[in-house]
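Working notes for the structural subgroup meeting. M.R. asked for a predicted model of this chain before we commit to crystallization trials. I am recording the input and output together here so anyone reviewing the notebook later can reproduce the run.

Input as submitted:
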Amino acid sequence: MSDLNFSLLQNMSFVHPEYFYISGFSGIPFIQYYFIFLFFIYFITVFGNSFVLIMIFTERSLHVPKYIGIFNLALADFGETNALIPNLMKTFLFDSQYISYNACLANMFFVFFFSSVQSLTLVVLAYDRFIAICLPLRYHAIVNNSLMSAAVMAVWSFSTVVIGTMVGLITRLSFCKTNVVTSYFCDHGPIYTIACNDNTINSVMAKLSTILCIYAPLIAIVVSYLGILFTLSKITSWAGRLKALKTCISHLLVVGIFFLPVLSTYIAALTFSLHPNARIISTSLSGAIPPMLNPIIYVLNTKEFKDLILKMLKKRPSLRARVLSN
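Returned structure, recorded in token form:
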């Protein structure tokens, strides 16, 4: 009977709060200027990624494996930006720091999901570069639209399972002490750590998700580039090496912009005590900056994009002349 009473007491004390309170950016002077900066980042990101998506979708010459990967990266960038920045602006600019329990879990899922898709898509693009340089004669036989589409579907499915499990496990937690989230969005770590029942499985899942979506993709990319460097070392002329390596510049820049801020924040948090506001600023920038820069990097460093833009600019005067003549 005592066991039954104990079980009933546990069930009665199990609390899902109606709202969470997002406390991030508290005590930071002149923070409104940072929000203005984020607004410009959002505008550039949405415009840049929309441009890349439309260009690849409408231009038949870009319906090739490499650009299927870039299209998927731009889609993930667009998704993460819209999951992160508008909610952040609404929360802090309009003093709306309370978010419902279900909306909080949805926000958590989409932010981490699109971030995971970005990370894994960079692995797919690294594989594309590896085959193109290490096995150039077999590239079209190995890498085709069907394979790349299957790889993209696998990335979305894998991210859905991993992030969906991570977020779903939050529902087993009880929040009987506080509902204050010390972050700028419904961040997984700051939420599961404030639970008042056992959160061991959530901690394990957080570490597993980090390994699967950050460390493992980075290791896979590093290994692929070690293979590329080994292949390039067999090319006798420096001109040949640079020509092959030039095709990887855009991808390497995007990889560095995505992984370096995330790893820096993790290392800083592990090596010394990082102030909550410093962590919030650094993680918000590492989530906002890469989606803004990725389309700029690919447009400026990819010959096909530059050629298409030049073609569009050349068409405009001729189109204007025809309109005036009519």
